[in-house]
Design goal:
442 residues, alpha/beta, Rossmann fold, pyruvate-formate lyase- activating enzyme, OB fold (Dihydrolipoamide Acetyltransferase, E2P), 3 domains, 6-stranded parallel sheet, 19 strands, 34% helix, binds S-adenosyl-L-homocysteine, binds iron/sulfur cluster, binds FE3-S4 cluster
Length: 442
């Protein structure tokens, strides 16, 4: 019987896709998937360190394995991802969890195969974290688990050094994949029947700005959208300092590109944006939204917001509220600022008390929910196109998303996963929609 693996993933889409690459490596080594720790012969933690609670989560779950490891001494425990790449964290992990067998970083993911083989022949644990980024290593064998959706990296790393953010320290400098590699991957996925492709990067708009690819993001987007086939195309994340009209023109040209832009604003106050080193102003951000909506009136925008950044006054916070209302976001991810060691903001003295942070996040969540609910109600009676992506056994309903990321549920007698459904919306419940199938596209 084949040995089994279980991967535990924390963090962003980038990590979710990297777990698919890790799964690809494990399949190559002959492992098969299981979804419990108890049945696994190897457990891989793909960690995140964007905020303190992401780290605490991983610490808790790794710690909980102590007993299992005692019962099953041959069980391999591997830890990778952004946390192991954080300065000093490997030592903390080593000390805290002596039962970890393998540690690898984000910058040497491709070495995991060798590291596992090495661990199998030696007693000593194997720790290999690369300090600096090298050339991009192409991974042909990601084991994808998200059909009909597929993620495709167009670049790695980040050069922006927003003052609160740890990503540039744990992901290295920006590197762009060659357009021919990206195109070949997307062509392959479309041929295999994937129906939604998301291009991934920390700041997709600066694709190619290292001058090595000879291609801008708008040009790349145009090329990918020109690939024949019935699929949707998304991209994330856009950075407001670089988002531009060229990209919107390409969106106009291709109906396949979803009319949804994820454009993290972080704050509506110019003073806070400056302290965050975001390198745009509220006014520039709003100009971009107007440019987008004047070319594509149906376009929707989603965002990320941080409250309680050092020095944020009540007035600054209210600027964020007014911006949220003005943009009228389709949805927003909202976070309380979490100091990350080694970043500029962690050294700032004017910290905001926890109760003030809590109060602000609660008010902001309430505002965002009100906007989202109001948008849901507008769907009532309309027919929208949903890409069916799963079956919810508890609800007994199929589910999928429209191009704006709205979840729609419906019943069907046949399996329609991977099909585009015209859905007439009969009920809008907070953020979820419910409807009746009008037609199924083959
Ligand atoms: N590259 C993307 C997203 C990076 S991380 C971008 O530039 O927008 C995703 C989100 O996490 C960020 O947009 C930000 O809102 C949030 N985030 C990052 N560091 C954080 C911190 N120290 N505390 C709280 N939220 C943080
Ligand atoms: Fe972090 Fe800023 Fe880079 Fe996004 S752009 S990953 S927030 S440093
Ligand atoms: Fe993503 Fe977390 Fe790393 S948000 S890039 S997995 S720190």
């Amino acid at each position: 019987m084949a040995e089994k693996y279980h991967i535990v993933t924390y963090g962003c889409q980038m990590n979710v896709h990297e777990s698919e690459k890790i799964a690809g490596i494990l399949h190559r080594l002959g492992y098969e998937e299981t979804d419990t720790n108890e049945n696994a012969d190897i457990i891989v933690f793909n960690t995140c360190c964007i905020r303190e609670n992401a780290e605490n989560h991983a610490f808790g779950n790794i710690g909980a394995l102590k007993k299992l490891k005692k019962q099953k001494p041959n069980l391999l425990i591997a830890v990778g991802g952004c946390m192991t790449q954080e300065k000093g964290k490997t030592d903390v992990l080593k000390k805290k969890f002596p039962f970890i067998d393998i540690m690898f970083g984000t910058l040497n993911l491709e070495e995991l195969e060798t590291l596992i083989k090495r661990k199998k022949t030696q007693k000593k644990r194997v720790i290999e974290i690369r300090e600096t980024e090298g050339e991009i290593i192409e991974f042909p064998d990601a084991y994808r688990t998200s059909y009909p959706n597929a993620w495709v990296n167009i670049m790695y790393g980040c050069n922006n050094f927003c003052s609160y953010c740890i990503v540039p320290y744990v992901r290295g400098r920006e590197r762009s994949r060659k357009p021919e590699h990206i195109l070949a991957e997307v062509q392959g996925l479309v041929k295999e029947g994937y129906k939604e492709i998301t291009l991934l990067g920390q700041n997709v708009n600066s694709y190619g700005s290292d001058g090595k690819t000879g291609t801008t993001f708008a040009e790349l987007l145009d090329m990918v959208a020109s690939i024949e086939g019935d699929f949707r195309l998304r991209f994330m994340t856009s950075h407001p300092k670089d988002f531009n009209e060229d990209v919107v023109k390409v969106m106009e040209k291709h109906r396949k590109i979803c009319r949804l832009v994820h454009l993290p604003v972080q704050s509506g106050s110019n003073a806070v944006l400056k302290a965050m080193n975001r390198r745009y102003t509220r006014e520039k951000y709003l100009d971009e939204i107007h440019m987008l909506k004047s070319r594509l009136p149906e376009a929707e925008v989603t965002t990320d917001i941080i409250v309680g950044f050092p020095g944020e006054t009540e007035e600054d916070y209210l600027d964020t509220e007014s911006l949220v209302k003005e943009v009228d976001y389709a949805s927003a991810f909202t976070f309380v600022y979490s100091p990350r060691q080694g970043t500029k903001a962690a050294e700032m003295e004017n910290r905001i008390p926890e109760e003030v942070q809590k109060d602000r996040i609660m008010r902001l969540v309430e505002l965002v929910n009100t906007l989202t609910r109001r948008k849901s109600e507008k769907y009532l009676g309309k027919t929208v196109e949903i890409l069916c992506e799963d079956y919810d056994a508890k609800k007994g309903l199929y589910l999928g998303r429209d191009e704006f990321g709205r979840m729609g549920y419906f019943s069907s007698n046949t399996n329609v996963i991977g099909k585009f459904i015209a859905l007439k919306i009969t009920k809008a419940n907070g953020i979820s929609l419910y409807g009746e199938v009008v037609s199924v596209k083959d």
